[in-house]
């Protein structure tokens, strides 16, 4: 599904390049070509890839997920964890063999990894068959890069990170039919000592409220029922702008739009989660009762080393306010295990916080050093093996909490969006307002619709019964 707002826009110059490629592309390849977009990393990367796909379609490519069929292949990369980078290098190494069979194959690497000078230099020296490498703030120039490469340009490397403007009106090819991503801001100002994001995504830049509203309206008109707002820290939306609309006010504006849909958002930083925001979630019917509040560590000492701008006490006070105002909230969080300088005593404070809060689920990671971040220079005497033991202890605790929490869902009826097919034959899947997933037997005609489901049991997943009105 594609959309574009208006003809005169910041993307107008690239639209000219897209038209030039479209008029040339069939002759260049000798047939109608296919493009493959390979995405690594977070939801923001997935959303960026939807724009890459939209641009590629506007240039005359059809889309494929099969590498061997592709005439253009692009890797949209993640730099947040070392494992993601290793996977990228392993995958781009396969392009060499593909080019032997398809000399006109154009290959590209973009995104957070490509924004780093060391990575760009490594690709330049070690992967000569990669044609185009570009960073996060110039991905809208893909039509220009392809046009130049088709016309004999040397390998292209572009890593600008000083663009303060947001390029609007880029065509989008969305992956889902019922659930979609809606970016509201880009970049980050927090500079957590372990995080590479501000260095590869730049400083915070908020989209204009009307642009967000217009895109949401189009998504609703196109049949999207589950819209997730994206930003590195959505809670700080509007702080860099003069329009006076903060995140809570933006949520109310979206909630007031006509249509039957649910609004989700991620990610939230605890330091910017206000009482106004909590009351907005409480009072607005279309906003999900799910709050993702990464606390990263239960130790105030470690939080200070992480530069998180809050301590254990402030985080627990925030959770108290959340539960008082939104009793049915589903709370999730991120935790880093084994941050440089963390002791087992610090880690036990993380365990005790998890016990106290009882999160619905957790995203847990063993610390992975990122080059050019302050934490990478800190002393880190605890072995990977020891951190692994701590990690297992955390997982075990969360499994116990999850087992206990199952009881509060069984026997209750929830309104869910039927959004997919289960691996169980004849069953569909749906998600509650609080993001709880449930499987139930139903006809596929209800896909994309809101239905009432009673949860009866838990058997590797919640199993329910469709309540017919």
The CATH level-2 architecture of the largest domain is identified as 3-Layer(aba) Sandwich
CATH class of the largest domain: Alpha Beta
Q: Between the first and last Cα atoms, what is the distance in angstroms?
A: 31 Å
- Share of residues in helices: 25-40%
CATH superfamily of the largest domain: Cobalamin-binding domain
Computed over alpha carbons, the radius of gyration is 23 Å
Strand content: 15-25%
DSSP summary: helix tally = 14
CATH topology of the largest domain: Rossmann fold
Poorly predicted runs of 5 or more residues: 1-8
The tally of domains stands at 4
What distinguishing features does this structure have?
disordered N terminus, 19 strands, five-stranded mixed beta barrel, 469 residues, 4 domains, globular, Transcription Regulator spoIIAA, Rossmann fold, alpha/beta
Model description:
Mean pLDDT is about 95; it is low at about 1-10. This protein has 4 domains: about 10-160, Rossmann fold; about 175-290, Transcription Regulator spoIIAA, CATH 3.30.750; about 290-405, 2-Layer Sandwich (Transcription Regulator spoIIAA); about 410-465, Nucleic acid-binding proteins (OB fold (Dihydrolipoamide Acetyltransferase, E2P)). Helix content is about 35%, strand content about 20%. The chain has helices at about 10-30, 45-60, 80-90, 95-100, 115-125, 140-150, 195-200, 210-220, 245-255, 275-285, 300-305, 310-325, 345-355, 385-405, and strands at about 35-40, 60-65, 70-75, 105-110, 130-135, 155-160, 180-185, 185, 205, 225-230, 260-265, 290, 330-335, 360-365, 415-420, 425-430, 435-440, 450-460, 460-465. The chain has about 475 residues and is an alpha/beta fold. Helix 1 runs parallel beside helix 6 (about 140-150), helix 9 runs parallel beside helix 10 (about 275-285) and helix 13 (about 345-355) runs parallel beside helix 14 (about 385-405). A hairpin with a 5-residue loop joins strand 15 and strand 16 (about 425-430). The strands form 5 sheets. The protein has a 6-stranded parallel sheet with strand order 2-1-3-4-5-6, with helices on both faces. The chain has a 5-stranded mixed beta barrel with strand order 15-16-17-19-18. It has a 3-stranded parallel sheet with strand order 7-10-11, sandwiched between helices. The longest helix is centred in the C-terminal third of the chain and has 22 residues, at about 385-405. It is built from 14 helices and 19 strands.
């Amino acid at each position: 599904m594609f959309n574009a707002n208006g003809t005169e826009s910041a993307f107008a110059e690239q639209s000219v390049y897209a038209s030039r490629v479209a008029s040339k592309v069939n002759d260049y390849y000798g047939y109608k070509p296919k493009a493959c977009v390979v995405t690594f990393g977070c939801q923001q990367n997935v959303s960026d890839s939807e724009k890459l796909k939209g641009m590629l379609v506007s240039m005359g490519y059809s889309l494929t997920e099969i590498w061997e069929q592709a005439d253009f292949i692009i890797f949209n990369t993640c730099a947040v964890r070392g494992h993601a980078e290793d996977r990228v290098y392993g995958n781009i190494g396969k392009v060499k063999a593909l080019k032997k069979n398809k000399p006109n194959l154009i290959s590209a690497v973009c995104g957070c990894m490509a924004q780093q000078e060391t990575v760009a230099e490594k690709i330049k020296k070690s992967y000569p068959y990669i044609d185009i490498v570009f960073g996060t703030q110039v991905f809208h120039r893909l039509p220009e890069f392809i046009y130049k490469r088709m016309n004999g340009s040397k390998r292209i490397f572009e890593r600008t990170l000083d663009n303060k403007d947001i390029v609007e009106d880029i065509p989008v090819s969305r992956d889902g039919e019922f659930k979609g991503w809606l970016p509201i801001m880009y970049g980050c100002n927090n500079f957590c000592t372990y995080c590479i994001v501000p260095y590869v995504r730049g400083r915070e830049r908020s989209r204009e409220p009307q642009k967000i509203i217009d895109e949401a309206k189009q998504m609703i008109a196109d049949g999207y029922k589950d819209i997730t707002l994206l930003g590195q820290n959505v809670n700080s939306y509007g702080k860099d702008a003069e329009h006076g609309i903060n995140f809570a006010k933006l949520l109310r504006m979206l909630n007031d739009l006509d249509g039957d849909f649910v609004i989700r958002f991620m990610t939230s930083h605890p330091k910017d989660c206000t009482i106004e925001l909590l009351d907005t979630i409480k009072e607005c019917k279309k906003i999900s009762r799910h709050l993702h509040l990464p606390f990263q560590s239960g130790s105030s000492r470690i939080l200070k080393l992480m530069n998180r701008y809050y301590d254990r006490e402030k985080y627990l006070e925030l959770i108290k306010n959340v539960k008082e105002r939104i009793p049915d909230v589903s709370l999730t969080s991120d935790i880093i295990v084994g941050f440089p300088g963390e002791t087992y005593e610090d880690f036990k404070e993380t365990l005790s916080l998890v016990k106290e809060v009882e999160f619905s689920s957790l995203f847990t990671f063993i610390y992975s050093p990122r080059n050019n971040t302050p934490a990478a220079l800190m002393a880190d005497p605890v072995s990977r093996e020891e951190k692994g033991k701590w990690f297992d202890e955390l997982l075990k605790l969360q499994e116990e909490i999850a087992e206990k929490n199952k009881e509060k869902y069984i026997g209750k009826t929830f309104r869910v969006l039927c959004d997919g097919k289960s691996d169980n034959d004849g069953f569909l899947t749906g998600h509650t307002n609080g993001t709880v997933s449930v499987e139930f037997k139903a006809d596929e005609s209800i896909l994309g619709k809101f239905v009432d489901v009673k949860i009866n049991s838990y058997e590797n997943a919640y199993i329910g019964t469709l309540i017919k009105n």
